[in-house]
């Protein structure tokens, strides 16, 4: 296959997690099954050349496009990632703190319910699992709290990682000089609006 054939765009993942307590901050595309993450790593990311990995964050008011691609030792199975996501506190924290480098890992995401967790596990409402009432549909016991059901989630990261040193933030208005970002939005947004 010619090395000039276009690399397919892939957005069949749930979103991103960011992790901050590591030598470098982590960017983590998330999948619902660990097996999916493992398979994709083996088929694609494993063959990426670290120095060629590019991450672009294209900002568009309250949302952003995550765009990621690289040169591969196995170009025939290469793909590029993209996903349009809402800006979040973690997004802003990564933007301020990454310092030009990050670890790329893949992970799996699962919802957790009251019956699955330890007493001390925190709910999205900020209160612990033991402060929720399993006799009242897992509602939070704090009267000031509007939480009607314990909800939490667990993220598991694969151990393997790649180091990314080419991370750029762009505004949607000026992506024309960035081939990866321009190609992504052209294929996945502009051509669909016509
Ligand atoms: Zn609560
Ligand atoms: Zn709660």
Overall number of strands: 13
What is the helical fraction, as a range of percent? 10-25%
- What kind of assembly state do the chains in view correspond to? single chain
Task: Indicate the proportion of strand residues.
Answer: 25-35%
Shape: elongated
Order of helices and strands: EEEHEEEHEEEEEEEH
Q: Which hetero compounds are present in the coordinates?
A: zinc ion
Number of domains: 2
> What characterizes the major β-sheet?
6 strands, mixed
Q: What is the CA-based Rg, rounded?
A: 19 Å
| Helical run tally | 3
Distance between the termini: 31 Å
Report the structural category. alpha/beta
Mean pLDDT: 93
Low-confidence stretches: none
Keywords summarizing the entry:
single chain, 194 residues, alpha/beta, five-stranded mixed sheet, 13 strands, binds zinc ion
Characterization of the model:
The mean pLDDT is 93. The longest helix is centred in the C-terminal third of the chain and has 15 residues, at 179-193. With 194 residues, the chain is of the alpha/beta class. The chain has three helices and 13 strands, in the order E-E-E-H-E-E-E-H-E-E-E-E-E-E-E-H. It has two domains: 9-112 and 153-189, no CATH class; 114-150, no CATH class. A hairpin with a 5-residue loop joins strand 9 and strand 10. The chain is elongated, with a radius of gyration of 19 Å. The protein is 18% helix and 32% strand. The strands form three sheets. Strands 2, 3, 7, 8, 11 and 12 form a six-stranded mixed β-sheet that branches. The protein has a five-stranded mixed β-sheet with strand order 1-6-5-4-13, covered by helices on one side. The chain has helices spanning 34-43, 89-97, 179-193; strands at 9-10, 15-19, 26-31, 54-60, 63-69, 80-86, 102-104, 107-112, 132-133, 139-140, 152-157, 162-164, 166-171. It binds zinc ion (2 copies). One zinc ion (ZN) binds at residues 123, 125, 127, 140, 142, 145, 147.
